[in-house]
Amino acid sequence: MSKNMQVVILAGGRGTRLGRLTDDIPKPMVPIHGKPFLYYDLQMLKAQGYRDILILTGYLGKRIEEYFKDGVGLDLHIAYSHEETPLGTGGALKLAENKISGNFILMNGDTLFPLELHELVDFFYRQDRMGAIAVSKDPSCRPAFNITTNEDGLVKAYHKKLPSSGASYASGGVGVFKHDLLQTIPAGRPCSLEEDVYDILIRNHDLAAYVAQGPFYDMGTQERLKIIREFLAT
């Protein structure tokens, strides 16, 4: 069941903190060792047996579609949902509702979290909550710690914009969710998954935290890009 689950990738970001690098390409297409960053996420998914991919595009999304096409060249099946105007992470997910077939894995197209996805999926089904997100307590992620949990391992607070000194984990940009989540997102207007939707799940005790081993890699700044290049060169 796990390997048949659809993977939805949020890839609509512009990446303004990367300056001129994203003048003519979307953030997930920034090259790393001659390949777009998103290529490495897709390779990780294929290596673990996940081949049904839906990419949610926004800023210069055609560049992503032109490069990866239908995914056949990578032995994947790739479909797309494109937002014409910025809708936020939640709004982009809602827009794609009719292309999401059931419970799904959701991941950011600008982060790389090399974890065993089937273990996260198994955890999600054991918890039987609306969602489960992968978090890390690796010391290298410490400046970005933004998740606090309660004694039951449920997310108690998600500090989206500013890391919290009282937080115990960093959100790695990967989660598993029930299809019913899409019904809670308002249609036709901008909505943040992290700030709006997660807030509802947290208040309803419906978001579990899966503690994964090791760090994750975020390409949001020039310094983080350097770290990713080093990691992917090994």
Automatic annotation (TrEMBL):
Record's keyword annotation contains Ubl conjugation: no
Alphabetical UniProt keywords: Transferase
InterPro entries referenced in this protein's UniProt entry, alphabetically: Mannose-1P_guanyltransferase (IPR050486), NTP_transferase_dom (IPR005835), Nucleotide-diphossugar_trans (IPR029044)
Domain Nucleotidyl transferase intervals: 7-225
Molecular functions (GO terms): transferase activity
One Pfam assignment: NTP_transferase
Lineage: superkingdom: Bacteria
Protein name, entry field: D-glycero-D-manno-heptose 1-phosphate guanosyltransferase
Organism listed in the record: Velamenicoccus archaeovorus
